[in-house]
Automatic annotation (TrEMBL):
CDD domains: ABC_Carb_Monos_I. Residues 28-268 form the ABC transporter domain. It comes from the Bacteria. It holds the Pfam family ABC_tran. Coiled coil: none annotated. SMART domains: AAA. The lineage of its organism: Bacteria, Bacillati, Actinomycetota, Actinomycetes, Kitasatosporales. It comes from Streptomyces asoensis. InterPro entries: AAA+_ATPase, ABC_carbohydrate_import_ATPase, ABC_transporter-like_ATP-bd, ABC_transporter-like_CS, P-loop_NTPase. Keywords: ATP-binding, Nucleotide-binding. This is Sugar ABC transporter ATP-binding protein.
Length: 296
């Protein structure tokens, strides 16, 4: 691919320029992007930039537009306002396959796995390795087992037995297998829709660890969550959606966990709710716990 016969100095110069361009151009970028479903405006004026080796967290309450946003990026829906760019070029995907071809992989909460099939088989689901010439081509079981094992280990995921049905793994472990799978199949951007929503504290920690592992391997991660604590543990950038618009977009250095929690909770709304609760219960407002503490 590179200029094999070029002058050495020229080659170095070109590489440097490319590197700078690669660092500056987000892999995925939304500019004033919006989406309407008929008369319903689910998303409006959203800006987002996903860079390699960074975790971009998208937070928001129920109905805030989080899923709508990732459906645009993952090729399920098309935006109706603004721009959607991949590597700096405006795109409009018609199918998730087109997003995948650009290296945008999505791990949905209801993971598309076959519970009774072994772990290694699920790892290669839809992309099975084969060997031998047609018409005697058959599944390369050994290679699939070996590769799945290696890739899981590379991510630091140790499972006792890859023959066990994936349905016997914990929810957290299944999320981890899905992350390792996306990494193996060359994802550049990994979208995770509420991967910790149904998990306990310990399992959430495990999933967060592999989000960090994917980031360290250079992937740009979009982490959807309504838990500011989880977001703050791994996030480089935080975007808070509220009723379809972006209420906050901040780098890690610009926002504290407390501020993030307050944004998520809708500080003023919670304060109003607290007053109502105090009236109902006939107690003084000060006797109720702090508004920010309620949301966690
Ligand atoms: N296919 C659709 N047709 C019509 N309206 C939709 C459709 N999908 C979503 N909406 C609306 O768009 C808004 C945003 O929904 P979205 O699913 O993106 O929110 P969310 O942040 O993912 O919420 P949750 O936390 O509940 O998953 C909601 O008001 C929802 O009712
Ligand atoms: Mg959703």
């Amino acid at each position: 691919m590179g200029p094999a016969h070029g002058h050495p100095e020229v080659t170095t110069l070109m590489t440097t320029t490319n590197d700078i361009a690669a660092e500056d151009t987000p892999v995925v970028e939304l500019k004033a992007t919006g989406k309407s479903y008929g008369n319903i405006r689910a998303l409006h004026g959203v800006d987002l930039a996903v860079r390699p080796g960074q975790v971009t967290c998208v937070l928001g309450d129920n109905g805030a537009g989080k899923s709508t946003l990732i459906k645009i990026v993952s090729g399920l829906h098309q935006h109706t306002e603004g721009e959607f760019l991949v590597d700096g070029t405006p795109v409009r995907f018609s199918t998730p396959r087109e997003a995948l071809d650009k290296g945008i992989a999505t791990v949905y909460q209801d993971l598309a796995t076959v519970p009774l099939m072994p772990v290694w088989r699920n790892f290669f689901l839809g992309s099975e390795l084969t060997k031998g010439p047609w018409p005697v081509r058959r599944l390369d079981i050994e290679k699939m087992k070996k590769t799945a094992d290696e890739e899981l280990r590379n991510m630091g995921i140790v499972l006792d037995d890859l023959e066990q049905p994936i349905g016997t793994l914990s929810g957290g472990q299944r999320q981890c297998v899905a992350i390792a799978r996306a990494v193996h199949f060359g994802a550049r951007v990994l979208i995770l829709d509420e991967p910790t929503a149904a998990l306990g504290v310990k399992q959430s920690g495990v999933v967060l660890k592999y989000i960090a592992a994917a980031r360290d391997r250079g992937l740009g991660v979009i982490f959807i969550t309504h838990n500011p604590h989880h977001a703050y543990m791994v996030g480089d950038h935080f975007s808070v959606l509220r009723l379809g618009t972006m209420e906050l977009s901040a780098e890690r250095s610009q926002v504290s966990l407390e501020e993030l929690t307050n944004h998520m909770a809708g500080g003023t709304e919670l304060a109003a709710l607290k007053h109502e609760l105090a009236q109902v219960r006939g107690v003084d407002v000060e006797e109720l716990p702090d508004a920010a503490a309620v949301s966690s």
